[in-house]
Structure formats: structure tokens, C-alpha cells
Amino acid sequence: MPRPNLVTRFSRWTGIALVLCGLAAEAQWRGSRDLTNRGNIPTWDYSERFVHDQFWFTRAEFNGGRGWQTDYPNADLNFSWRLSQMTALKVHPDPQHLSLLDPELLNYPFIFMIDPRSLRLSEPEVEALRNYLLNGGFLMVDDFWGDQMWNGLYAEMKKVFPNIEPVPLPHDHEIFKIVFPLDGPPQVPSEDSAERTMTMPDPYRTWEDEISWERPQPADFRAYFDDKGRMMALICWNTDLSDGWEEEGVSHWFFENFSEKFSYPMGINILFYVMTH
Predict the structure, then answer these.
(1) Is the peptide bond before 93 cis (omega within 30 degrees of 0)?
(2) What is the mean pLDDT of the chain?
């Protein structure tokens, strides 16, 4: 039986209600880079018969070095586990990574791109990403900071959508409230950055080294919409949500202040929003 297209896949997921059960008190410790060794991250049963109708956390590979591997696979494993734990969504326990040129990409309506400072899209990648997004796919970009990195990503996305400009999301946008109520886009620093500043006078530093201490910048989420108003891509700028997934087990302080409070709620909000709009 042929696999459903991206729009059909999202509509199937939309029928799955989220059941909120809260985060567990104990953080999961990080696994290794080898998916055959999950560390303390549990696995769970899944249906082989309906394997392609489950949510797969899918990371996009891209040209420009190994930046796409940042936080891999611990962020991917932990986020998949928390989705399975906190919601009624059917989630595959093994995240995956695919090239933008892989035809299999069209079977997965949510892709994740990280640390795009080295992103240099080839013409085939530009065409493939444009085709993916215009045909119902969604791209989330995370973990990049400051004006220089924004300008670089903007230039690459301009190749994909020459006539579409990203739209800054207001703090009262539905995506910040659809499941977990948040006061706009959260700023999550890397765990080591947060730990270095946790003893400083309140408020402790929530931004990373690419942003000047003297001129901090808040988190800013910017979206690309198609001509029907569907959000195709969400650029999570000046934040590192995925470090809250990857490093949730490094310290209980980081887990409570960033993973539990911001990274997982925002990640679930994003996923639920794109499933239902």
C-alpha cells in the first residue's frame, strides 16, 4: 500500500489527542552517539504494521560541514521519549536523520535543522527543500544566535523562497499557548553556558557567546508561510531549545529551569500547532 503524502500524514496525526501528564521528576541521563546504546533512555513498543503512520523525529542533513549533527542523538532520543511519555501521540523510539536529497524525506512531514551557521544549500538541496515545504512539510530550525548567523540563514532561505519573507511571531501567537501557556518565545541557553552564570546576580545569563553580554538579544521566532497562510518553517532564533532536550540529565537545576519549563513545552507546542493548522 502506498504511503500517505505529507498533508494526509498530518491529518492522521491531528486525530490523535494529546494527553498531558506532566514531566517526571527524574531527568533522563544522556545516551551515547550510538543509537544501539540508548543509555538510560527507555525504548517502547511500536507497531511494525503501521510504522510509517507514527511520528519519527527526523533531522535534516545539510551541506557545510558536520553542524547538522549538533546535539545528536541525545536531543532526538530524549525528545522522542518525552513525546511518547507526555502525550498520546504514537512515536517511534528511534529518531533518524536524512539528507535533504533523500526521496524518503517526503514520507516525514516534520524535519528538524540545527546550528545552521555552516548551512550552504546546493541548488538540488534548494529545490528539494522548496518542494518539501510547498507540499505540506514543516521545518523547525533551532540553536543559532546573533545577527551574523541570522543573516547567513536568511540568505540560504532566500534561495528557497525568493519572494517570501519571514514573519516575526507576536508573543500572543497561538503557537505559544496551544498546549502549554508560555509568555512568548523562550530563551534557552546551552547547559554549560547556563551553569557558568547561575551564581551571578539575578537574572542569570540566558544567551550564548555569539550575543554580546552588553547587548543581550531576546529569543525571536520567525515563520515562513505559504500563500494559504500555512506555516511551512519556524526559525527559533537566539535560543537553543534542543540543548534542553539533549542535556536534561546533566543537572537537576538545568532540567527544572530550562528543560521542564521551556524546552519540552515549546517543542510540544510547535509540533501540535503544525499538526492542527
Answers:
(1) no
(2) 83
261 is written with which cell numbers? 519549563
pLDDT for the residue numbered 232:
98
The CATH classification of domain 6-20+31-276, taken from the options 2.40.30.20, 3.40.50.12140, 3.60.120.10, 3.40.50.1220: 3.40.50.12140
The pTM assigned to this predicted structure is 0.86
Annotated domain spans of the chain: 6-20+31-276
